[in-house]
Amino acid sequence: MATTDPVRRVRAYLAAALGGTKVATEVPSEASKVATYVVVNPNGGAETDFLDMPSLLMDCHAATDVHAYDLARRVAALMRAMPDSDPFVSSVSTDAPYRNSWARSTTPAGHCYSVPCDMTINK
Fold first, then answer.
1. Number of domains in the chain
2. Which of 34, 46, 106, 116 qualifies as a FRET site for 60, CA 20 to 30 Å off?
3. pLDDT value, residue 109
4. What is the full DSSP assignment across 63-109?
């Protein structure tokens, strides 16, 4: 993958891996019609001349709490597997998914779990 933008890199990776699940960088305008979607958010990190070490937050939205949690666990597993499919990604660590009350209150889907993620990407 040619892009060095970690948000676009992760969005493209998750979109391909999750098949029909919408993956975006903001809540989709059609969110009221989409039952399940993931929003990839930058959340800080560090950068050197040779490495990008972003912290990202994946908000996993679904119509039920159980589905949102299952989606978040799937996203976490996919993120940890990302170094196996992207030669520029040397490491990924995730924290356990947590219920995101703020995102939950702002989404038409009604339920949201977030997955914090730290990555190391070789430039």
1. 1
2. 46
3. 61
4. SSHHHHHHHHHHHHHHHHHHHHH-TTEEEEEEPPPEE-HHHHHT-TT
